[in-house]
Amino acid sequence: xLRLQGEAGPIDAVLGGSLRHHAEGxxxxxxxxxxxxATRPSADGPAVVEAVLPRxxxxxxxxxxxxxxxQVLAANVDVAFLMMGLDQDFNLRRLERFLAMVEExxxxxxxxxxxxxxADDVERLRGATEDVAPDVAVHAISARAGDIADVERHxxxxxxxxxxxxxxxxxxxxVNRLLGSEAFATGxxxxxxxxxxxxxxxxxxxxxxxxxxxxxxxxIREVQLWSDxxxxxxxxxxxxxxxxxxxRDCRHEGEPGCAVEAAAARGDLDPAxxxxxxxxxxxxxxxxRRRDVRSQRATERAQGKLYRRIQAEKGxxxxxx
Length: 321
Known about the structure:
Elements: E1 2-6, E2 9-15, H1 17-22, E3 36-39, E4 47-52, E5 58-62, E6 70-75, E7 79-85, H2 92-105, E8 108-114, H3 122-132, E9 137-140, H4 149-152, E10 160-165, H5 171-179, E11 204-207, E12 213-216, H6 231-234, H7 236-242, H8 259-266, H9 271-320
Parallel strand pairs: 2-4, 7-8, 7-10, 8-9, 10-12
Antiparallel strand pairs: 1-2, 3-4, 5-6, 11-12
């Protein structure tokens, strides 16, 4: 069951048979943030979603596991808040993945470093974050203490934003602060490993008092990119260095004249950041190969169905004559 927000308020809805039948995959079905065309067959029954309007942006990842399948996390988003805790949750390599995912989407990334009220080295961690997120706004906040003014500045009337991060990072606490009420359940962090537990079980869009819209959802444990289109914007320092490599197709893995590896050897580029870039390149290249194979197989199946249909028609007309 879907939940739509219309002019008259929220209504339940189901997928129309034509939409379900013609969608090539789950990524073409409605997700949170989508605008849809729906009909209401009866006043007391659910609406029927007949079509999904074109998306101006979408945040996608590859579904966990080996399958080359796209999962759309949110659509028509203007701002993506990448939320990370200043505790055991702090992980720059994971942040790089989130940045690449959002840069591909068409939304504007903003990094939120939550739990600044309990961190001892906020400025050092903020600086480390800014090093891997150049040209991206980075804010240290405390959702629990209500220090969220930097967040509110990005949520003007008509703006749609989404919260992305791990479980227990404080997303639901932040939503409650922005709403001014305890609308979303929150949970405690496990002391043994600093990991949060899923208190939000589905993605939901809420209207904020100032007129903005905010999407919250379950924590994301695994961030696998759907394509390499966001790597260049997520790693501008690496891309700038790569322009000086001897070979235009340099992979930065032992080729002669590699300016990127030379910068890492000099200490001008963090070797861990270079390895993260390489890992994402290898991952997205492998995914592209699997997507090509999957597309080819789908084409072959469609051609086989068409051939069998033509043969059946030939046989039918042959019998009639």
